[in-house]
């Protein structure tokens, strides 16, 4: 029988993972952003956060990103009034300047115009708190309980012009319990979001790196 290698044998240097530059868009506390920051801190994770951008200067997630040593930027949508495209052109300029190859929406609470979606076609991801195509839009947990479904969850998808209609990249589910409230259900779904988003992003980055 062949003897196993000695535990003291010198190991070959670990292969350096090529990291894909990504930008994260947030509007609030950046709960999913935290999970992505933790994942990107791993040496073997194939993504690097080059920018965290918010449409709200007071978004708590900006401070979280700064504490993690990340570059942050706020481009307030309010001065642009109803001219969403003008606001998004400023965002796009910042994304391009950052060198990002992928844009990851993590609680970005603005409906994007077709202009920005087209500019980042097939390179923009979003996570939605339902098992799409069920319950697109807002108030998904209330809708799931009201509909009496047995399973609920979250979906990572590519962003297209249709709200929550892009190709599905990954999903995770949780059971809906008899005594669930929107809050208790949301908490369990959020736990799955924090696991699913880094996993799907890793998969997409592996494709980009090839």
TrEMBL record:
<feature type="site" description="Raises pKa of active site His">
    <location>
        <position position="164"/>
    </location>
</feature>
<comment type="similarity">
    <text>Belongs to the GART family.</text>
</comment>
<feature type="binding site">
    <location>
        <position position="84"/>
    </location>
    <ligand>
        <name>(6R)-10-formyltetrahydrofolate</name>
    </ligand>
</feature>
<keyword id="KW-0808">Transferase</keyword>
<feature type="binding site">
    <location>
        <position position="126"/>
    </location>
    <ligand>
        <name>(6R)-10-formyltetrahydrofolate</name>
    </ligand>
</feature>
<protein>
    <recommendedName>
        <fullName>Phosphoribosylglycinamide formyltransferase</fullName>
        <ecNumber>2.1.2.2</ecNumber>
    </recommendedName>
</protein>
<comment type="pathway">
    <text>Purine metabolism; IMP biosynthesis via de novo pathway; N(2)-formyl-N(1)-(5-phospho-D-ribosyl)glycinamide from N(1)-(5-phospho-D-ribosyl)glycinamide (10-formyl THF route): step 1/1.</text>
</comment>
<dbReference type="GO" id="GO:0004644">
    <property type="term" value="F:phosphoribosylglycinamide formyltransferase activity"/>
</dbReference>
<feature type="active site" description="Proton donor">
    <location>
        <position position="128"/>
    </location>
</feature>
<dbReference type="Pfam" id="PF00551">
    <property type="entry name" value="Formyl_trans_N"/>
</dbReference>
<dbReference type="InterPro" id="IPR004607">
    <property type="entry name" value="GART"/>
</dbReference>
<feature type="domain" description="Formyl transferase N-terminal">
    <location>
        <begin position="22"/>
        <end position="201"/>
    </location>
</feature>
<dbReference type="GO" id="GO:0005829">
    <property type="term" value="C:cytosol"/>
</dbReference>
<dbReference type="InterPro" id="IPR002376">
    <property type="entry name" value="Formyl_transf_N"/>
</dbReference>
<comment type="function">
    <text>Catalyzes the transfer of a formyl group from 10-formyltetrahydrofolate to 5-phospho-ribosyl-glycinamide (GAR), producing 5-phospho-ribosyl-N-formylglycinamide (FGAR) and tetrahydrofolate.</text>
</comment>
<dbReference type="InterPro" id="IPR036477">
    <property type="entry name" value="Formyl_transf_N_sf"/>
</dbReference>
<dbReference type="GO" id="GO:0006189">
    <property type="term" value="P:'de novo' IMP biosynthetic process"/>
</dbReference>
<feature type="binding site">
    <location>
        <begin position="30"/>
        <end position="32"/>
    </location>
    <ligand>
        <name>N(1)-(5-phospho-beta-D-ribosyl)glycinamide</name>
    </ligand>
</feature>
<keyword id="KW-0658">Purine biosynthesis</keyword>
């Amino acid at each position: 029988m062949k003897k196993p290698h000695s535990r003291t044998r010198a190991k070959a240097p670990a292969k350096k993972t090529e990291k894909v530059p990504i930008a994260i868009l947030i509007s609030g506390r950046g709960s999913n952003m935290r999970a992505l920051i933790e994942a990107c801190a791993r040496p073997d994770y194939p993504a690097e956060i080059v920018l965290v951008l918010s449409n709200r200067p007071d978004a708590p997630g900006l401070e979280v990103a700064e504490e993690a040593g990340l570059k942050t930027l706020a481009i307030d949508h309010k001065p642009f009034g109803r001219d969403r495209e003008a606001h998004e052109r400023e965002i796009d300029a910042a994304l391009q300047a950052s060198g990002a190859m992928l844009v990851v929406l993590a609680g970005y609470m603005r409906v994007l115009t077709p202009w920005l979606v087209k500019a980042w076609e097939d390179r923009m991801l979003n996570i939605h708190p339902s098992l799409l195509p069920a319950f697109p839009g807002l108030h998904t947990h209330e809708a799931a309980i009201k509909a009496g479904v047995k399973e609920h969850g979250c979906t990572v998808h590519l962003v297209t012009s249709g709200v929550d209609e892009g190709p599905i990249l990954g999903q995770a589910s949780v059971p809906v319990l008899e005594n669930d409230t929107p809050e208790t259900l949301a908490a369990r779904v959020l736990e799955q979001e924090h696991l699913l988003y880094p996993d799907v992003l890793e998969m997409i980055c592996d494709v980009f790196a090839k």
